[in-house]
Design a protein that fits this description.
Elements lengths: L26 E14 L6 E9 L6 E7 L3 H13 L17 H11 L4 E11 L2 E11 L13
Antiparallel strand pairs: 1-2, 1-4, 2-3, 4-5
Length: 153
């Protein structure tokens, strides 16, 4: 076999599972944030946060998850998640003297999450014939193979 057979169409990319959270059993996980960004839905133009995650080795691999921003409640919940991840979201309040705004700071915070490992809890709830999947962010995860103290050199 020759590797040259792959040259013409080679594109390094991850294959995302279309099922998103449906493919992940309920439980606690450590996920790497591959990308997090503000986007809009193709059909309705609604604002969303699109997350791309990768599970730890032995998990389901890479997948996407979406948070809808349909109203102030969803924006506030997302702000609470950003606070848990270490961002100073209290400064994004319109009454805060910093003058920082949610609309400006959120995209910066999401971009800063690339390559960050986070701890999450995935739950499912069935109402009638529909199953809803929820991902609760619990915080950042320390990388096990990195020293916690500065190196002595």
């Amino acid at each position: 076999m020759s590797l040259e057979q792959f040259d013409d169409f080679f594109k390094p990319q991850l294959n995302y599972q279309k099922a998103s959270l449906q493919a992940l059993p309920d439980g606690d996980y450590e996920l790497e944030v591959l990308k997090a960004e503000i986007a809009t839905t193709p059909k309705t133009g609604e604002a969303i946060v699109r997350w791309s995650f990768r599970t730890a080795p032995g998990g389901i691999g890479a997948f996407e998850h979406v948070n809808f921003l349909r109203g102030q409640d969803q924006a506030n919940l997302l702000g609470a998640d950003m606070k848990v991840l270490g961002f100073p979201t209290e400064e994004w309040d319109a009454s805060h003297p910093s003058g920082k705004r949610f609309s400006v700071e959120l995209p910066k915070a999401l971009a800063a999450l690339s390559s960050v490992w986070i701890s999450v809890s995935k739950t499912s709830k069935t109402v009638g014939e529909k199953t809803y999947h929820n991902l609760k962010i619990k915080g950042r995860t320390a990388v096990a193979d990195m020293p916690t103290e500065p190196m002595p050199f």
